[in-house]
Every structure is written in C-alpha cells, then in structure tokens.
Amino acid sequence: MTHIPSTQHLVPVEQYAQQNNMTADQVIRKIKAGDYAGERIGDQWHIDPKTTTHETPEPQQKYIFAIIIANLISAVGWVALVGGIVALCVSVASYGSGTLAFIKLLVVAVAPSVGAILTGILFIALGQVMRATFDTANYNREVLRLLQQQRTAHPLEC
Prior knowledge:
The chain is mainly alpha-helical.
C-alpha cells in the first residue's frame, strides 16, 4: 500500500471502481498489493486515479444462458464425435469375412458412425461460433462503454 501525502487528488474507491468497470473490492486488493496508490481515511478507502496504471478488466458477461447453451451444444458434439469414432473402431474390428458381411458393415455400422462423427464436428463448430458471437457482443459493448465514457470526459475532443 502506497502512502499519499496529499489527499486533494484522492477519490473514493467506489467512485473509481464504477468509472472503470471494476468492483470496490478489486480496487482495494490492488491498493493493498501495491499496484494502485491509495490509503484508508477513516473507514473509507481512497485512491489517486492519476497514479494508477489502468488495466482493462474483462467485460461484464451478458448472455450467460446462451453461453451455457453454446457450451452444451459443443459438449453434445464432442460426445457424438467420440461415440462415432468408438463405434467405427468397434465395427471395423468386428468385421467378418465375405461380401455380405462387408455390405452389412457399411450399412449397419460405418454409415451411422460416420454420420455421428460429422454431426459431432458440426455441433462443436456451431457451439464455438455461438460462443464467439456472444464474446464479440460482450467486447463490443465494452468498447462502446469506453468510447461513451471518453466522450463524456472530453466532449470537445470527440
């Protein structure tokens, strides 16, 4: 924790946290770790915003339910992919001799196994595309928030 001799530039931790998309607890931890300059005055923590090297935190996650669905779709895809590979290996290993056995193998075992493998790959890709879309939306919202914050802080420069 860095001691600041003059308190004229100090702002309450809650105010700094709100302006920088952080929680007050995160800011206090950084003060205690020596990453930010600040001190406790009475029962309230204060920070000197001019001495902080602001690190952009992860954007607030929205679309939590949709992200869970995307992860479930990917998980189903992985199960289908692994199941299809295992089924294909087992069916090829149990391959008998003769033309009839080969046709039976193709129709009964290989075609569904390949279908499961392709479906698994499709579901994995779909889940990943969904997740990337939600992450992009979250980061775009964060960029918009930062631009709006910059515009309100310096209205004549924009």
